[in-house]
Amino acid sequence: MNIKIVSNKAQISIIEKLAYEIWYEHYTPIIGKNQVKYMLQKFQSHKAIREQIQNGSLYFLCEHDHKTIGYISVDISDGALFLSKIYVASDERGKGYGRKMISYLETLAKEKSLNKISLTVNKHNTGSIHMYKKVGFVICSTAVKDIGNGFVMDDYQMEKSV
Q: At 50, which CATH number?
């Protein structure tokens, strides 16, 4: 698997397209189609991704055999590497790519002298929670965040020491 930093509009467009495919497939049963649509427009549109990168977020494309299979987004926050987004295309899940992506982030955190990776995950996203626990994340707390338009993110906060 090859992981490369996103640095141009074409790569942002690839992420936007992949986000729409993954989010509608994965999140509609968890949070409903209306919230998925709202969150994609607010957080994963081309404009939103570009603004996040301009504000310091790092996005990475993940490829295998010249095919984009997923993406990652991280921020440095409160002395930790905050894993904002980690997504693998549905037809590529179960092949160990998520574990490899986490391993890449562990190395990145160490390079930046950070001692933990933190993330938030929807409380009903059981498959992702299971994967995070398998690679060493633990649930630290819960958080409910109003994201506007009558929607909330009802999440676990998880951490992993590196």
A: 3.40.630.30
Query: Could you tell me which of 126, 129, 127 has the C-alpha nearest to residue 138?
Result: 129
Paired sense of beta strands 80-88 and 116-122, if any: parallel
Alpha helix (H) ranges present in the chain?
9-31, 33-43, 46-54, 97-111, 126-134
Question: 20 is in which domain, residue-wise?
Answer: 2-161
> Measured between alpha carbons, how far is 150 from 147 in angstroms, rounded to an integer?
8
Residue range 102-142, pLDDT digits in tens? 999 999 999 999 999 999 999 999 999 999 999 999 999 99
Number of separate domains in the chain: 1
Torsional sign, CA 15, 111, 98, 40: negative
Taking only the tens place, the pLDDT of each residue in 9-19 is: 999 999 999 99
**What separation in angstroms does the CA of 7 have from each of 11, 100, 104, 159?**
7, 21, 18, 28
Locate 120 and state its tokens. 């938030």
Q: Are 72 and 4 in contact (CB under 8 A)?
A: no
